[in-house]
Structures are given as structure tokens and as C-alpha cells.
Amino acid sequence: MTTNTAKIIAKDIDMRFEDKHLFSATKLVFEQNRVIHLQGDNGCGKTTLMKLLAGFYQPTKGAIYAEGFGVAPWWRSKSITGKALYLHQHPYLFEGNVLYNLTYPLRFLTADKEQLKARTEQAIDKAQLRHLLTQAASSLSGGEKQRLAIARAWIIQPKLLMLDEPTSNMDKHSQHLVLQMITDLKQQGTGMLISSHQTCMLTKVCDYAWLVNDKTITTDNVSTLKEVEQTQVELSASLHVSVG
Ligand SMILES: Nc1ncnc2c1ncn2[C@@H]1O[C@H](COP(=O)(O)OP(=O)(O)OP(=O)(O)O)[C@@H](O)[C@H]1O
């Protein structure tokens, strides 16, 4: 049964590059109102999974499809491309200054222009980009580029957003700014998939975890994981007491 919640579903997928097997997964549901931490060691396939969900790659086996996105033209009614916004850890930016980069995608949106303008002003302040507005985007530092890309996503307010290692170039201050924007998006119902091989400030907003381990992707509720960790801590403490 289909619902109005926008989602991308991966069913019985298997992904390999020639003879290199990356991962398999039985069922993954990436949907609005859920924030997922995608975990796994370097090279396990986190970026590849995001590119599959963005429609840039096809799985070797299995199906990836979208539900709840409204009617698309018949020639792309089955395509998932463009449904979830993917932010690479080295974000793609247009030639031009910071303001141009923030405002360029807005012409393709159907939302009220005045609202978009107001939202852009808010994003500039939230990401602390005002002093950089006339600077060439290519000359920004790695952390500033990521703040710009996330501010642009914040304005667009997509139904689904994937952030690939978003904190890799960011200091604590930038992480705080981005945390605020991500928390806003979460409250506004954007579904997010945040990849990070270790926990960081941003993964605190995640309610679910997808773990790529041993070439298999498993899913879990973060509260369950926390309970397991807590049980392990308590068990280890009780062992200390009984041994000591
Ligand atoms: N287009 C491609 N063709 C062949 N191999 C690829 C391709 N893209 C990625 N790989 C390989 O697949 C593996 C997984 O890469 P991927 O970038 O998805 O990992 P990751 O978990 O995101 O890593 P990291 O945490 O280091 O960013 C790597 O060994 C990589 O070299």
C-alpha cells in the first residue's frame, strides 16, 4: 500500500563493482520524518549506498523504487533520480559567488518566491555566511563549502536529504551551526541519512542506524542500540564488582 510519506525503498539489493562484493541488504526504507545514521568502516560502501538511493548507480541485483512523491511525467515515472538530495563530502558548487550558489536552485522551485527570499536570508544567518556572500565559492575553506551546501539544502527543504560525512572538514563551531540547521530540517519533516564512520555531534539527532558490516546492511532503532550499550556497560560494571 502506498502512503503520502515520501520514501525510497531498497529491496533485496546486492551491490558489487565487477568482482568486488560491497554489500547486500534485505530491505531499507529511507523516508520522511526519520533521521538515520549510516555507519561503517572506511571503504565499506556508504557513499555507494547513497549514490544508489540518489539514482546515480543501479544495484547489481534487487530493486530501488520511490513512493509518495506525487505524479511525475510518464518518461520518468519509475526513476528515483532527483528524488533525494545527495550532498557529497566535497560539495558540488557552481562557479560564482556564495550568494549565487545559494539562490541559483531557487528558480526551479515552485514555492512562493517571497518565502524563499525570507528563507534564504535566514539560511545566510544560520550558516554565518553573510560576510562571505560576494566571495567566489571556489575560494572557500572546506568547512565553509560544507556550510554553504547545507544552507542551500536548508533553503530547498527537500523531502529526503543525504549527507555524506558532513563533519569531515568542520570545526566544532561549524558543526554547531550545521547541527542547528539539521535539527530544523528534522522538525520540518525532512528525512535524512547521515553517513559517518564514527559518532559525531550530528549523529546525536539520529533516531535510527543502518550499519554496514561484514558486507551486510542491518537496520536498528538507535534507542535499542543505546539500551544494548547500556546493558553492556552495566554488565561490565557488575563483573568488576563481583571480581573485585
Ligand atoms: N565507481 C566505482 N568503481 C569501482 N569501485 C568503486 C567505485 N566506487 C567506489 N568503489 C570502491 O567501492 C568501495 C566502497 O567505496 P565507498 O566510497 O562507497 O566507501 P565508503 O564507505 O563511503 O568509504 P569512506 O568512509 O572512506 O568514505 C571502495 O573500495 C571503493 O574503492
TrEMBL record:
Annotated SMART domains: AAA
Claim: Mitochondrion is one of the keywords in the record: no
Keywords: ATP-binding, Nucleotide-binding, Transport
Domain of life: Bacteria
Pfam family, any one: ABC_tran
Domain ABC transporter: start-end pairs: 8-239
Recorded coiled-coil stretches: none
Family that this chain belongs to: Belongs to the ABC transporter superfamily.
Gene3D superfamilies: P-loop containing nucleotide triphosphate hydrolases (3.40.50.300)
Presence of the UniProt keyword Chaperone in the record: no
Name of the molecule in the record: ABC transporter
